[in-house]
Amino acid sequence: MVIRHRLEPITSITNDLSNFCALGTLFFYALPRVPANGAEAPDGWFWFDTPFNYNLVLFSPSAGGNRTFSAIVADIRYLVDRGYLRVTYRVFQLHGLETIAVVRLYALPADVKGNTVVREFRETISRFKKTSAQDTKYRTVMGQLIGVLDYTATAWNISSSDQLMDHIRSGTLLFPMTSPWSEFSLKKVGSTNKLWPNEEQSLSFELKRMAEECSILPTGPTWSNARNQSSNVRAEERLLEAYENVKSPSFAHLNSDKVSKLQKEIIHSILSDEIPGLKSDLYTYQRQSVAKMLEREYFPVRAVMPNLLRVTSTKQLATKAKDFFFDMNTYQIVNYPETFTTPRGGILAENMGLGKTLICLALVCASKLELSVIPPQHHFYERSDPQVQSLSTYCVRQIGKESIPWKAYIDRLPSNCIRLLQEYTGFFEVSEADNMMSMLRRTRLRSESDMTRFEKRKVYLCSTTLVVTPDNIWHQWTHEIEKHVKDGYLNVLYFRNKDSLLGVDHKTIIASDMVIMAISCFTSPASVSLMKNIHWKRFIIDEGHSMTSKTSNAVYLAKEMSADRKWVITGTPTAGLTRLHVNEEQDKAEQSSVYTAKKTFDAKDDLSRIGAIVQNFLKIDPWASSSKLWRSSILEPFLAAPYNFDIQLQEFLSCVLVRHSMADVETEVKLPPLHHMAVFLEPSYFDKLSINLYTAVLATNAVTSERTDRDYMFHPNNRPQLRRLITNLRRATFFWTGFTIDDLDALVAICKTALEKKDDAGNHYYSPEDRQLLVKSVYFSKKALANPRWRTASAIQEMNYYVEGLPQLFTSSLSIEVFSKDISVYGAPQLLMAQRIFLKNRFVRSNELLETRLLEEVRPFWANYWKKAAGKTRRRENDRNGISEKISYVEGNSQKIQQNGSAPKHTGTLVTTTGGKRRLSDSSNEAMISLKKDSQIQNLVKNAHESDVETATLLGKIKTSRIVGTASAKLSYMAARLLEHQLEGTKSIVFYEFEDSAYYLTEMLDILGVGYLMYATYLKAADRPKNLDQFSDSPNGLALIMDLKLAAHGLNIVAATRVYFLNPVWDRAVEAQAVKRAHRIGQKNVVRVETLMLKNTIEEEMYNKRFKDGNEINEISDHDLIDDSGMQEFVMRHDFLRIRNGEEEQKPVVAPAVNVERRLSTFGTTETDGYGLLEPKGSLQPDGSRIWDLPLFSQTSLERLSEHMSKVKEKKAVANEAAPKPAEKRVKFI
Fold first, then answer.
1. Quick check: pTM over 0.85?
2. Which residues contact 973 (CB under 8 A, 6 or more apart)?
3. For residue 117, which phi and psi values (nearest 5 degrees)?
4. What are the pLDDT digits (tens) for 1176-1187?
5. What span, in angstroms and rounded, lies between the C-alpha atoms of 1104 and 1107?
6. CATH topology for 238-256+342-376+400-433+456-498+509-580+601-663?
7. Structural domain spans, the chain
8. Rounded CA gap, 435 and 431, in Å?
9. Closest listed residue to residue 266, CA positions, set 287, 285, 247, 246
10. CA–CA separation, 445 vs 156, rounded Å?
């Protein structure tokens, strides 16, 4: 009776097929002999009930011998006994053939009515084993059954032998119901039923069959290919497709009763482009984005969890067909799916440059009058007011409590009501405990008196939107508000830094419509203490990809921020969307040198980043409540690639993201073409020399370390040194003066020691190939040491400028080296000094006076120059630590050579040191040690006076002097490009990764008088926006020299139509976003991008990584450059660049003409005997290039110099006025 009492509840559930879902069908032969059919089931077939004794010996008329149930039947019996399945069957006799049993499998949903009874029964029958062990066993057994079931309605509804025969012929599986007898063991359940033991089971294909009610094809390539199709598609490709297929905004919920009439009117007005307070017209896609964001805020919906697959069944049960949901994680079947509530917010992920800031401003304007509401978790307790309230007070408080937007009716309200409403601010109270519910559980509060033990604070409701922006684009929000919002419509507060919060209280903030706050201000203690008492209507994080961090202080504060609606604004929430957003066009004629800035990404990392936003910022449950749930319910299933999960992930992303596909945008907005060209330059003489010296250092290290152990630079322990070395090698492609003479002396000595090393047999120790590397290393080291210009540049770290025609008066006092009879070499400071002297003395008609003034200027110049040179040397040593450490490794190897050979040990030091600090040593500075002493300057000037008799002739010669080239191929190219852009009025952006490249470039532009502005880290954050404004507003062809680190996100620089990268960028995401600063909404002209790289160098190898077999692959690895196997292989080849005999040192200023139809002739006068000056002249060559004749003293260069000198004087004057004046001395008379 007890057993019967326990079984009645479970049997009442399992014997009622209406509680079950039709799963699938199996076909069996080799049936056992049974005395009678089972009891009739509700579907008209027979219950499939197996004997209680698992080891019962069976007999099969067709198979013979002692038999037992087969493995697949044992699996089914395991699930039936535990109430997961019920099975019915019917036997059909085929014509003259075997007897076949058709078996129907019904699955019991986990959420069936009475499921608690079912769970208790399973625990009892499993002898109270751990639930996790039961679930694992169930998943294993069910997973194998899923792979062999026939899901077609045809199989399910077979009612005759003829139908069965037709179905078998069409292709299905037949299983033996019995197998040779062996003793049963529960361990065998789920372990022996492997139809394809050597092939990985593809759940994706099986779920596809289940959802689409397909049969099974047991043989042939179609079956094999179908099963493995999903596993052949990379996760990254699938995720990109999911991103691409995120639905553009639609408004299916707009007709819901849950959306108020006022809310519907607001959304319809947005779609009709009737947004109050906005003076700019929106594109259709922008209006749709605004409306969708507002709909998300108004109407959160319940959506099915992504791990649940909906199965629509056409199989007829006892009553009717029944749909169900299949959990792809647990393999459970449920009637009613688990859901999540979409957030009141999300991620605005429109493409870079499509006006996300304007979309947000329109959202704020459209919902200006709405208020934040009291969160549901804070409605559970209200403190009663002991005083009796007046009716007006009660109404005002209720309006505040219910967040009624009373300002929408302000025209209808009497003045006294308006006054009362303005004086009262709605609020709710929160405990200082982190979580009120957990506090209730911990303390077991029972009464109101218990509640009072906890201190409470008021949190005020408001209609304010808080926008937190990166510091570098804070100013852009101010400009966008001025540009798009009508004056006075929004009350906006701006907070740039913590000092701007002084004197501000919560009343000031909640009286505003919008707060624009830089992130550095947001994370300040003053901000934290102020904002914790405000429940914001809306919280927007601009460039919110930073919210994917798990350790950032800003992420923690954003997570704790109290707000009704939360938005992350970013065109690049993940690397995958960054790649998707890049859309560069290319001409077919330019295919050989065009590349796009797309990058590969890691799907796992991408989804993890979205998960961080979902959990930490948007706080979407259930993921926000369980740190591991995102991984188990989203990440792992996606990587396992089950059927339809990509579509379900896409549906989930559509609930979080607001974005348009580019196809939808381009139906209305067409950005001008974007052409991205790779420019391969022939390295200059000094480029080759610098790169070869790096190659020599690496080659010598590889040989002498024998490419093993820690002495070898590519040993894992040497990663920091190798990273610095490779970085400096990349810097050397612009210009490099990091090697000292002592460095090369040491390198030559080490190579010679290695070349002389012998083995025990007296043969050369190293292979012929390695000896050849050592010989080349010695050759190029000596070539550098023998070059006076290299020695001088190494000593004073100046770019070499080659100037022709400058009189000896200037040459002898300012040049750093003589190159030929007519050409001398100068550094930029020396040329700028020459221009300054000429500017101040261009009208002097006396030689003696000119000489005197020259001496007056030159003496302090050199004294100050050497002071700066010492500081520059110290800074260089910080940059070249990798070199010194590298040569130290080489020198250590030479000591090993000395121990095993007869060559003398090299004992030379790398640099001369004083007190542990590096300085300009005598050897490294020998070219300059006696340069420009006062007495020598006087003698040189005297000699110059004897040779230049006529002052007029002297001035004329000065005017005709010209720059014939530089030591850097990239510098000469950029000078030609930017000079032509200035003359044509074209604005350009030049991105640099390494500060020394920008330093040399701006020196050249100063010399030529080319206008430029800086956007760099050394500028104050407040000054950078001013330069951007000046750049955009200027009518001239300016260049903006921008640090790539500051160019990644948010900036709008559509004034520029030319973009240059001084070197290839390894991180494609950074490069793509930098390009998008100019190529975005608002750009009306074609944008042309050029990336400079030297031929046959590490830069060209970086470029080649973008191609495979001549076709662009648009991928590059995310890891460091030194970790890339291809880049390592290139560096370890130790290819030296060939320097031809008689190769010119200087690189002329030449580049392909921007406009071949325009003749850029000389500006100004050609008169050299008067006061007129020459201007740069670009001559078009037959090959389409333009070579520039650059006078050292042009009108534009002197005007810029004069402007600079005036600014310096103004700064000094201001500084002097601000400085405290010394106390006035009083004379005491005695």
1. no
2. 679, 681, 1092, 1150, 1151
3. -65, -40
4. 888 888 888 899
5. 5
6. Rossmann fold (3.40.50)
7. 1-201, 238-256+342-376+400-433+456-498+509-580+601-663
8. 8
9. 287
10. 58
